[in-house]
Design a protein that fits this description.
This protein is of the alpha+beta class. The chain contains eight helices and six strands. It has helices spanning about 20-40, 45-60, 65-75, 85-105, 110-130, 135-145, 180-195, 205-210, and strands at about 15-20, 80-85, 170-175, 200, 220-225, 230-235.
Length: about 240
């Protein structure tokens, strides 16, 4: 069978990820965590924590579940929707912390606490794998909104630096996006269909603008008046 072409390289395009990959990883973590709690083989939890730590530190090439998905599964089923990789990465960081605590609890004899933490990881991971609802990803998104009420809130944009001629009147939508992001493409298509005047800012090509305006998630889109005042948020 000929491999199905990819739009996002799994080991180079690290700012995005096939949305199915985190679910595959969550399935592996959920099943193994459940086995660890059910059998009392708590060292499995420590191995899962170590594998998450290695993957987070050194990249997807060193994440066994990621390699299994990208090398064995994705070539056969095709690439899924491409999404921002930061929410699932944050979810993995939470998983690492809880699995680490569970391992420590078991090691010092707090078996009930270790089992409870291991079971929590198993249930949340399996929920994400089966339904797509990722608690850690939602926490990340809530955090980005909370950060939006701080001094770096997106309340003003300099339209001239977006490579756009400033309109004489009305407003323009500024959409921070990534060329491989499925949701970004869908957002831009909706703006086009609605006849909205917009400019797309590629965060991969213009990282300085992403940093300047504190873009923590793509797509992020805001309506901007001609004087640069942000009048509404459409996405992100």
């Amino acid at each position: 069978m000929a491999p199905i072409p990819r739009t996002a390289h799994p080991y180079r395009d690290l700012d995005v990820i096939d949305a199915r990959a985190p679910r595959f990883n969550q399935a592996a973590i959920g099943i193994l965590s459940l086995v660890a709690v059910a059998t009392g083989w708590w060292l499995i939890l420590g191995l899962l924590a170590a594998q998450l730590a290695i993957g987070l530190r050194f990249g997807r090439r060193y994440c066994l579940a990621c390699v299994a998905y990208f090398e064995l599964v994705q070539p056969r089923v095709g690439e899924g929707p491409i999404e921002d990789s930061r929410p699932p990465r944050f979810a993995n960081q939470i998983g690492l912390a809880v699995l680490g605590l569970a391992t420590i609890a078991y090691a010092i004899g707090w078996t009930s606490i270790g089992a409870a933490l291991g079971l929590l990881v198993a249930l949340l991971a399996l929920l994400a794998a089966v339904t797509g609802f990722c608690a850690g990803c939602q926490i990340y998104r809530v955090g980005t909104r909370l950060r939006g009420i701080r001094p770096r809130s997106l309340d003003w944009i300099e339209l001239a630096e977006m490579g756009l001629a400033v309109p004489a009147d009305g407003e323009v939508v500024v959409a921070f996006s990534h060329p491989l992001c499925t949701d970004c493409h869908e957002l831009l298509a909706r703006l086009e269909a609605a006849g909205r005047r917009y400019v797309s800012v590629d965060v991969r090509a213009r990282p300085e603008l992403a940093r300047k305006y504190g873009i923590a998630l793509v797509p992020t889109a805001v309506a901007v008046a001609v004087d640069g005042t942000v009048t509404g948020r459409l996405a992100g």
